[in-house]
Specification:
Blueprint: H1 19-26, H2 37-53, H3 59-66, H4 74-90, H5 102-106
Helix pairs in contact: 2-3, 2-4
């Protein structure tokens, strides 16, 4: 997060603040000013590991943003920075993902 300090706003949610904005995130279009692939790929690379290994709460958002690596736009980069802001805000939070065990599945 330190590398991107000043570029993001700390957030309480990994996506956006309203249902309307969340639907817009899910339908993310390829609009907005194009940007260089390098910085976008670098940021996405830094988000992929936590999204798959320790912070599953951001996996959907990171997956959606990774689908934009062929033609990244500035709004996509801004949304990736929103995720960095969320991680910064919640880095000390006890985020838990429930995984059912065999015994739970059978009951």
């Amino acid at each position: 997060c330190e590398e991107y300090k000043g570029q993001y706003t700390e957030r309480e949610l990994p996506y956006v603040d309203s249902d309307k904005e969340r639907r817009a995130f899910d339908l993310m279009e390829d609009t907005g000013e194009r940007m260089e692939k390098g910085p976008y790929l670098q940021l996405m690379g830094k988000l992929v590991w936590p999204s798959t290994m320790v912070r599953l709460d951001i996996s959907h958002a990171v997956c959606k943003l990774c689908s934009k690596v062929q033609d990244p736009r500035k709004p996509h980069y801004r949304r990736a920075l929103d995720i960095v802001g969320y991680l910064s805000t919640t880095k000390r939070a006890d985020v838990r993902v429930m995984v059912p065990t065999c015994a739970q599945e059978l009951s």
